[in-house]
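re: the backbone from monday

yeah here it is again, tokenized this time
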């Protein structure tokens, strides 16, 4: 058995926020909830130029969006167990 290495604590970036969803961290969905909306828009604009139109926002709640998700189901007939999770 090898001893574990300890790492110094990382600095919390100002773009990082605490997710509002009570299921965040359990379900694995919406990883972008940790990032401020303005920082996320800047990231998308930098990484995918032209993919996000440069228009003024008309109005929306920060958490009023919906994300596309992909769920998978696995049934194990041997023990009659159905599992569901994100893909």
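seq for it, each position gets an aa:
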């Amino acid at each position: 058995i090898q001893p574990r290495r300890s790492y110094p604590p990382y600095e919390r970036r100002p773009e990082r926020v605490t997710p509002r969803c009570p299921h965040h961290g359990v379900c694995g969905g919406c990883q972008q909830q940790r990032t401020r909306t303005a920082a996320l828009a800047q990231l998308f604009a930098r990484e995918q130029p032209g993919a996000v139109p440069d228009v003024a926002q008309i109005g929306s709640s920060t958490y009023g969006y919906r994300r596309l998700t992909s769920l998978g189901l696995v049934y194990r007939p041997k023990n009659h167990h159905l599992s569901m999770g994100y893909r």
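The mean pLDDT is 73. DSSP finds one helix and two strands in the chain.
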